[in-house]
Design goal:
Its main location: membrane. Keywords: Membrane, Signal. Pfam families: MecA_N, PBP_dimer, Transpeptidase. With 655 residues, the chain is of the alpha+beta class. 30% of the residues lie in helices and 25% in strands. Strand 24 and strand 25 form a beta hairpin. Helix 14 packs across helix 19. It is elongated. The N and C termini lie far apart (101 Å).
């Protein structure tokens, strides 16, 4: 168009502007290239697609001298250069316009590599192309296409630096779980002549540790392991806390072939200290590495179970990752070239602050120590709902029964039944409520423990002596769902947000007359956890229900709202009755416990169709501490749960 104007004709200002604009557009086209089907963009995009897929047959390649390079060779070299990142190919994206100067085009490509620990490595790199005589654009292949610091024969390699693991803290902010000294007991097979004798001596020594090691150390297969071990290899026997090792050091230190390696592991103050709640920290296991190869590496510390497992990502932090280049060494291996392509510093984990109290937890653990049956003791501070202790037995039990058991509460639930009856005005502590030996409901006979009877006595006496027949006779006064309503005022069945798993109970409602009678004494379909009952007991002591608290940081997002105030006259009456349980009832063994008055309720709960099969319970409080004790298949509460409660309370006063 511009050439059609006569040369001698003077252009008007608008036409001069159009001419200048056209010239600028033509010049720009010379720099950015054609964006049509045959432009360099199309070739670059095909290259990036083929790089990701591993199929580069649609792309032509030349080296910097102009010699053709087979696509298969480029594919092979891309994999070689990627090195340890080969199984995690980068995301690739062309950025900006392709710049063209003569027959050379330059594109900018953004590479984003996924690295271990959820780290990403992003950078931009140029890709050059040449316009060939066949009117096609070809990629100029060279190692710098992958990264500017790569040379032929190089490969990318990873170096990983674990982040400092954060601790689990108690209510005062002090670490509960911290690096503590341990000793690894090992055996060198070359130094052992009589493997069976060695196993017997080690077994006897391990059994002498107090408190007893749980689970026991099994060395029955040690002779076989020694015979199968590689020459010069050490056979691991067990890792002991330093205090346990020192107990038996004189017995095992000089045994043939034994060797001992000092180390530190993240451990709680004692072996059983809130073990089921806290979980453990161990070197990454095969299952960890297989399930999360992008997260864990051999030698990493990993949380297993409990809070350590649930909050592992928070506690372990983010490992540091360095990408280096390696080059072939004379012996055929690869060696670092000294070039660092990328580095991310490790970011330390964040601590987990709990409400646990060391002295209370130690008292709870000591109370359960030596308990042969599965058991639990959980303690809650009445004034603010803080969970002070969560102990599980026997020993360092793996299941947190204190929070998650779903078992009938037995006669401890008479606390709930009594509250419901008092709220409805159906009974008073002084009212006479007969306690016969048996009471029949729709053909089913209910009886008292050991078939006792009290005759016509005040309701307080029925409660203190745990008379089943009195409560089954009063059950109709609660109505079809009165028991469930009373339970809900004490937090049962509520959706708690504790920051870990918890069962808040399920209370019988709208059952038959027989079911209502059974539910009034904590049987039937009602099931609870020890923590749910401790929370309910704290509510009675406090005068209203508040959700127990375990985690302070990170605080749960949706804790249950506090309950309405309980009727003062009902609470006063119930407290009087729960005190009578200790002063003259089924928990009289606690009457002389030092300190403030103890309140409580015993419970024996049948869990199948055999009346002889019973769990044992005790719930109560002293001062600002409410608690629940549960013993699976514990029989009579007075011979199992109450003695545990006494040891716990005496342990608290002795601190």
């Amino acid at each position: 168009m511009l050439l059609s104007y006569p040369v001698h004709r003077r252009l008007s200002p608008p036409r001069r502007a159009l001419a200048a604009l056209a010239a600028t557009v033509l010049a720009a086209g010379a720099l950015t290239g054609c964006s049509g089907e045959d432009g360099p963009e199309r070739t670059v995009d095909a290259f990036l697609k083929g790089w990701r897929s591993g199929d580069l047959q649609a792309v032509g390649f030349i080296d910097p001298t102009g010699a053709k390079v087979p696509a298969a060779e480029v594919t092979k070299e891309l994999r070689s250069l990627a090195g340890e990142l080969v199984d995690s190919p980068p995301q690739l994206k062309r950025t900006g316009e392709v710049k063209v100067e003569g027959d050379i085009a330059t594109a900018r490509v953004r590479l984003t590599w996924p690295l271990p620990g959820a780290t990403t490595w992003t950078y931009e790199n140029p890709v050059r192309l040449r316009h060939g005589s066949d009117d096609q654009w070809q990629v100029i292949w060279e190692p710098t296409v992958v990264h500017e610091k790569l040379e032929s024969g190089d490969r990318l390699a990873l170096r990983r630096e674990a982040a400092p693991r954060a601790g689990v803290l108690d209510g005062a902010g002090a670490p509960l779980v911290a690096p503590r000294p341990v000793v690894r007991v090992q055996v060198n097979p070359a130094g052992v002549k009589d493997a069976k004798a060695l196993a017997r001596q080690l077994d006897a020594a391990f059994k002498a540790v107090r408190p007893a090691l749980t689970p026991p150390v099994d060395v029955s297969d040690l002779p076989e392991r020694l015979s199968e071990a590689d020459r010069g290899a050490l056979v691991e026997v067990v890792t002991l806390r330093d205090e346990a090792y020192r107990q038996i050091k004189p017995r095992i230190y000089d045994l043939p072939g034994t060797q001992f390696q000092s180390d530190k592991l993240f451990l709680a103050p004692t072996r059983e200290f809130a073990r089921a709640l806290l979980g453990s920290v161990d070197p990454a296991q095969a299952d960890d590495l297989k399930a999360h190869p992008d997260k864990y590496a051999r030698g990493d510390l990993v949380g297993h179970g409990g809070l350590q497992g649930r909050y592992d990502d928070r506690l372990r932090g983010t490992p540091g990752v360095t990408v280096i280049t390696e080059r072939p060494a004379p012996d055929g291996t690869t060696a670092p070239s000294g070039v660092e392509a990328f580095r991310s510093e490790p970011r330390a984990g964040q601590p987990l602050k709990t409400t646990l109290d060391v002295a209370t937890q130690n008292a709870a653990d000591a109370a359960l120590r030596g308990q042969a049956r599965r058991s639990a003791l959980v303690a809650v501070r009445i004034s603010d709902g803080a969970v002070l202790a969560a102990a599980n037995g026997p020993g360092a039990a793996g299941e947190n029964l204190a929070f998650t058991a779903q078992v009938p509460p037995g006669s401890t639930f008479k606390m709930v039944s009594a509250l419901g009856l008092l709220d409805r005005g159906a009974v008073t502590p002084e009212a006479t409520v007969p306690c016969p030996k048996t009471f029949e409901v729709d053909g089913r006979s209910f009886k008292n423990s050991d078939n006792f009877e009290l005759g016509d006595v005040p309701f307080t006496t029925d409660f203190a002596k745990s008379c089943n027949t009195a409560f089954t006779s009063l059950a109709p006064k609660l109505g079809p769902d009165g028991l469930a309503q009373a339970g809900r005022t004490l937090g049962l069945e509520a959706p708690w947000d504790l920051g870990t798993d918890v069962f808040t109970g399920k209370v019988s409602a709208n059952g038959s007359a027989t079911e209502q009678a059974a539910a009034a004494i904590g049987q039937g379909t009602t099931v609870v956890s020890p923590l749910a009952m401790a929370g309910a007991t704290a509510a009675v002591a406090r005068g209203h229900w508040e959700q127990p608290r375990l985690l302070l940081d990170p605080a749960p997002a949706k804790p249950a709202p506090a309950g309405a105030a309980l009727k003062p006259e009902s609470v006063t009456a119930l407290k009087t009755m729960m005190r009578a349980v200790v002063t003259g009832g089924t928990a009289s063994a606690l009457a002389d416990v030092p300190g403030e008055p103890v309140y409580g309720k015993t419970g024996t709960a049948e869990y199948d169709n055999n009346p002889a099969h019973t769990h044992a319970w005790f719930v109560g409080w002293q001062g600002d501490v409410a608690f629940a004790v549960f013993v699976e298949q514990g029989g009579s509460s007075t011979t199992s749960a109450v003695p545990i409660a006494e040891r716990f309370l005496r342990g608290l006063t002795a601190r």
